[in-house]
Amino acid sequence: LAQDIHYILLRDLLTGLPNRHAYMKDTAKFPFKYSLAVICLDNFEHLQKILGNFKTKNLLHMLANRLSELETENPIYRYSRHEFILIFKNDTLKTSFEKLEQIRKEIASSEFMFSPKQKGLKITISACVSEKKRNDANAMEVLVRAHRMLEKAQQFTQNLISKA
Known about the structure:
Distance between the termini: 42 Å
Number of helices: 5
Radius of gyration: 16 Å
Shape: globular
Largest sheet: 5 strands, mixed
Helix content: 40-55%
Strand content: 15-25%
Structural class: alpha+beta
Strand order of the largest sheet: 2-3-1-4-5
């Protein structure tokens, strides 16, 4: 029972990924050098209106699986309804950006299938990566910096990777 409660508290039940609470707990164990990426599913509200809740949940589950397939070395967290956090341990901003750009391209070229009889759905993601700086007090500062830059970039375009 205790293991079940622990799993429920630290895992997102839809995707199986660690959740926001797990992220907060794990920040104390992040290495001295890391980069953090905030990944956002583009046009989420529009997709939810068109697909409905059930298919949107399926889509998020498929996206989480695809992200996990593409990034096997570093932890991925489901942070909010349509946002994921990826921690690039011991990677520079440049290396993290390049890896994230490859993930973005792979997602954009993938088709997400709801059933074998239906045509696959194409989606895109936008993301922002931020490297931990010496003057950052904690991981929340890195996250807030990346999140703000992503919001600013999404005002103009989508399906992009930016640096904070």
